[in-house]
């Protein structure tokens, strides 16, 4: 049994709209619907778990009516990490692989998701990450300190995940050491678990700012028949 946790408990302050970005509509559908559809259509995923703010639970339930895959809605936490932990603790005991994918990354390709799952099967823990394509500068107070070897730089995307027992260990270590991280890979690393990268694509960008949202709108509107 493989599960994906889709954290959707944020408020989207950097997009700056009145409602959380994952519920903003594009081409007549809330953004989260596009992300949920990715996993609804993936046979490798058996269960979808969605942490969400209590005020958005009813709306989400309504959206999920047309999905066939089993799902669980759990309370969002104060941080993304807390939301993911709430999702993890709701998983059934026979879960083998745990994936996490941001609700606001609607353009992940099925190929990348499958590659992450298969890397987790082989190695235990993995994430999708975009290899740096530009020349990378380390800068302090607008002054360049040095140029970093781009071959070693990857931008963390989702999905990320691990085998259930490794994920559990990463969360337990985070609690013991009082760690707060922006992604699961950081917590797995902190627990001493080797994490492997699968190449992601620029299209799998996270909708973080208003500009990202406008770009997503163009892409999703153009996709319509
Ligand atoms: N307490 C939180 C914070 C974030 N998220 C989710 O984690 C994903 C990635 O987080 P981010 O882009 O940082 O979303 P927000 O926290 O909503 O954005 P912002 O930081 O701009 O407020 C999003 O799908 C978001 O809904 C969550 O489930 N619970
Ligand atoms: C996991 C993640 O998508 C990595 O890019 C994460 O959500 C990033 O959070 P950020 O605070 O927007 O960097």
Automatic annotation (TrEMBL):
What keyword terms does UniProt attach to this protein? Answer: Isoprene biosynthesis, Nucleotidyltransferase, Transferase
Return the EC number. 2.7.7.60
Chain ranges passing through the membrane: none
Q: Where on the tree of life does the source sit, at the highest rank?
A: Bacteria
Q: Which GO terms describe its biological process?
A: isopentenyl diphosphate biosynthetic process, methylerythritol 4-phosphate pathway
Per its UniProt record, what Pfam families does this chain match? IspD
Protein name per Swiss-Prot or TrEMBL = 2-C-methyl-D-erythritol 4-phosphate cytidylyltransferase
Origin species, per record, is: Thermodesulfatator autotrophicus
In the UniProt record, what gene is named as encoding this protein? Answer: ispD
